[in-house]
Amino acid sequence: MPSRTNRFRGRSRYHGRGKKAGRGAGKRGGRGNAGLNKHKLLTRLKYMPGHWGMHGFNRDPSLRTVHNSINVSEIDQMLGDEDTIDLTSKGIDKLLGSGRVHRAIHITVEHASSRAIEKIESAGGSVTISEGDDWGEWEEE
Fold first, then answer.
1. Do 51 and 36 meet the contact criterion of CB atoms below 8 Å apart?
2. What domains appear along the chain, each with residue ranges and CATH number?
3. Is the CB of residue 96 less than 8 Å from the CB of residue 71?
4. Residue 113: exposed, middle, or buried by beta-carbon count in 10 A (0-12, 13-18, 19+)?
5. Residue 106: which of 69, 55, 72, 58 has the closest Cα?
6. Which of 27, 72, 106, 134 could form an SS bridge with 84, CB 3.0 to 4.6 Å?
7. What single string gives the DSSP state of each residue in 53-92?
8. What is the pLDDT of residues 36-90, one digit of tens each?
9. Exposure string (b/e) for 94-111, b if CB count within 10 Å is 16 or more?
């Protein structure tokens, strides 16, 4: 039985595939996202809204304040046998309230969420907010 290719040898130019279907990715209109602004335009508009262009905005890095934070659940592991910790000396400047506190801990930190303070104080501990270098305060003359 002759193969399909041998059957078409000399008789057909396109081997039963039409003019472009046999060349590369011709039948599907290109590979991947090819033609999104040409023949696949309606596909892009319907199924890929917002595919092109810029979205959102980025603030200048000098305007961002990124806090190095820790949760109250992680402090118990850091302390060991002690009950007092100064987080600012360890490079942590914000205390967050996720997790549980099982003992009285006395913490010094620059910033703390209200939930974290509530949890520490309900366990019998205390949170001292230290004044960092706050350049946002101005003196009026």
1. yes
2. 1-56 (4.10.990), 61-129 (3.100.10.10)
3. yes
4. middle
5. 72
6. 106
7. S--S----GGG-----EEEHHHHHHHHTT-SEEETGGGT-
8. 999 999 999 999 998 988 888 888 989 988 889 999 999 888 887 888 999 999 9
9. bbbbeeebeeebebbbbb
Q: d(Cα 77, Cα 71) in Å, to the nearest integer?
A: 11
What the block records as the tokens of 114 is 């209200």
In terms of residues, how long is the chain? 141
| Model confidence, pTM | 0.53
Residue owning tokens 């303070």: 117
Q: What CA–CA distance (Å, rounded) separates 29 from 91?
A: 56
Torsion angle, CA of 107/66/116/138, rounded to 10 degrees? 70
Instruction: Return the structure tokens found at 119.
Output: 């949890």
Contact status, residue 106 vs residue 82, Cβ threshold 8 Å:
no
Side-chain-facing half-sphere of 35: CA atoms under 13 Å: 12
